[in-house]
Amino acid sequence: MSKPIYVLNGPNLNLLGVREPEIYGKTTLADVQALCEARAKSLGKTVVFRQSNHEGQLVDWIQEARTMACAIVINPAAYGHTSIALLDALKAAEVPVIECHLSNPAARESFRHHTYVSLVATGVVTGLGAKSYELAVEAAAALAA
Ligand code: DQA
Fold this sequence. Notes:
Elements: E1 5-9, H1 21-24, H2 29-42, E2 47-51, H3 55-68, E3 71-75, H4 79-82, H5 84-93, E4 97-100, E5 123-125, H6 130-144
Parallel strand pairs: 1-2, 1-3, 3-4, 4-5
Helix pairs in contact: 2-6, 3-5
The structure holds 1,3,4-trihydroxy-5-OXO-cyclohexanecarboxylic acid.
């Protein structure tokens, strides 16, 4: 049995569907999880799908992924713009990393234009809503193969 793709979600993504739907859409995080699981299954992979509002918890999961995952898909949410701790953890993970965002941060406020995660990500998928996750899972599966 091959290792799963870890799909990790940062702060406030638990509120998907009700949080700023004009930006993030009406899809809930449970819907996103179902889409990721279905896409992974169609590619002969599995996902471990998690969300936390806490930076340290995300660091712990990235460290876990180092031995337990074949690749990481991460929507770091606002921590992407601020967290050197996430960057360092991802660097140490030594598995392929795909960053994804529902919105297109490059088209939004200037403080969203830089993400630390992009420094270590092999690829970045943005701006496509829940589809960003499906494409990110597909890319992670291809890199992990
Ligand atoms: C986000 C974009 C971030 O700038 C923001 O802080 C989020 C969500 C996205 O998926 O579009 O929380 O990561």
